[in-house]
Amino acid sequence: MTEQPNHEQHGEDRLPPRPLHKPAVDPALAATFGRPQGVEGAFDKLTAPAAGNGHRPLGPPPESLAEAFRRPEGAEGVLLERPAGGGNGSAKTDPAEGPLWTQTANPWRDPGAGAVLGGPAVAAEDEEEQAERKPGAQLSLPEVLFGRRVKPKALALLGVIALLVGAVGGLVGWWFASAGESLTGSANIAEAEAAKERPAGSVADIAKRVAPAVVSIQVTAPGADSGSLGSGVVIDPQGYLLTNYHVIADAVTNKQMVVTVFFTDGRQAIGRVVGGDSKGDLAVVKVDTPDLTVVQIGKSSDLAAGDTVIAIGSPLGLQNTVTAGVVSAVNRPTVAGGDDGQSPGAYYAIQTDAPINHGNSGGALVDSTGALVGINSSIKTAQGDGSIGLGFAIPSDKAVKVAKTLIAGTPIKHSEIGINVASVVGITSTGARVQNLAPDGPGAKAGIREGDVIIKVGGHPVRVALDFLAGVDDKAPGEVVPVQLVRDKAVLTVDVTLG
Question: Catalytic residue positions?
C-alpha cells in the first residue's frame, strides 16, 4: 500500500483562510431594512414575554365575540375551554371528579391542549318532555298548492321528475313488449315503405302515359253478355280508334252487333265502325267521347332488332295489361286477313317477344319513348293458345297511313301482280316458283313465265312464297318493282308495274 500524505503534519500544504469581504451597505437598503431609530440589538427584544406564565396579558374580548361564544343563559358546567392551571392536565373541572389527565389516559390526547371537551351547554330533554311533544299537523294538497307552504320551483321540479319517471316507465314497458314477442315465438316481419323508383323512360312511366290511350273493345249481339274481345288505340282527339279488322269483323258483316269501347278511367261508349281493310287486318272505330288521351305516333322504320318495346292491351279481357320485351326481328313476312271470306294477304310485320295473347289484337306496341310503332295483330303457338314469345305487330308507318285513308272515306287498294306462286327449295335456287299467271296480269305483261323461280322482289329477298306476297303488298299500286328470277339456271331481272 502506498502511504497517503498527511496534511496535518505538513501545514504548508493547507490553504490559508480567505480574507473576510464586507461590501459597503447601500444607504437605501439600510433605510428599508435597518433597525428603527432608537432600537439597538436584535428585534426579538421588542416581543420579550412578560413575567409570569410566559404570555402577554390580554384585554377584554370584543363584545361581538363575547356574545357569540359566551355560555347560554341558565347553562352550567364546563364548555370547550382551556383547563384551569395552564392546560397541564393536573386541574380538575369538578372537585368530585378525578384529574382530567392521568398516566393511563388516552395517549393521543394532548394534555396540554388549549381546550378540552366539557359538558353540554344545554341540558337534554328527558323522556317525559319528549313524550309530551306532539307531531305537527300534516299539510293538505290545497295548502301545498295554494297555501304558499311549498316553493313554486319545488312544485315544477316535482312535475318534471314525475314526467321523467312516466317516460322511463313507458320505454321500459315498450322494450318488454318487444322482447316478449321474441320470447313467445311471435314473428316480427319488417315492412318496407313504398319507395319505388320510376324514372322517366321506365316501363312504369311509359305505361302510365300510354295506358289511357289504349281501350278495350267488345263486340256483342243485342242482349248477349259475351262476344269477341280485342283492343284499340286512340289516334285522334275526335274519337277515332285504330284496331285490327278481325276484332270488329262481326260488326261489319252483322249490323246488329254492338261495338262497346271501355276506357281505363271507367268510362264506356258505343263505337261505330268507320271502315276496315280485311286484307291488311286494320280498321277504324269512332266514339263520341270528350277529353280523350291520344297516343303519340312513332316511326316503325327506325326500329331494329333488340330495341325495347312494350305491348299494352286487354289479353283475355284483362284490361290495361302491360308486357315488355324487345324487337325480335323486322320485316318478318306474316299472313293477315281472310276473316270475311276474302283471300288472305301478307305484310312485313314487327316480331317481338313481348308476351301477346288473344285480346291483345288491336292494342299498342310502343317503343322506349312511349311512341306507337305497331298494332299488335297475331301470334304463333306450338300447342294450345298461349303466348310462346312469337308475337307480330303491323308497323305504325303502314297502319297510320291506312287509318287516314279509311277516315277520309277512300277504299283501300292493294297491289296485284297476277301471279300464283309456291315455295320451292332446290339445289340451284330457293324461292317462290310461278305456278300460273293471269294472261293480262302485270306479271305476264312484264315477261314472267310459269316455272320461273322468283328470288327477289323490290329489293327484299324471297325464300318462300310468303316473302313474295309481302313484298308485292308492301308496294303501292302502279309502282314499278324490279323482280329478280331464275330461269334455266340464268338470273334475270324484270320490271313489273303493279296493278
Answer: 246, 281, 361
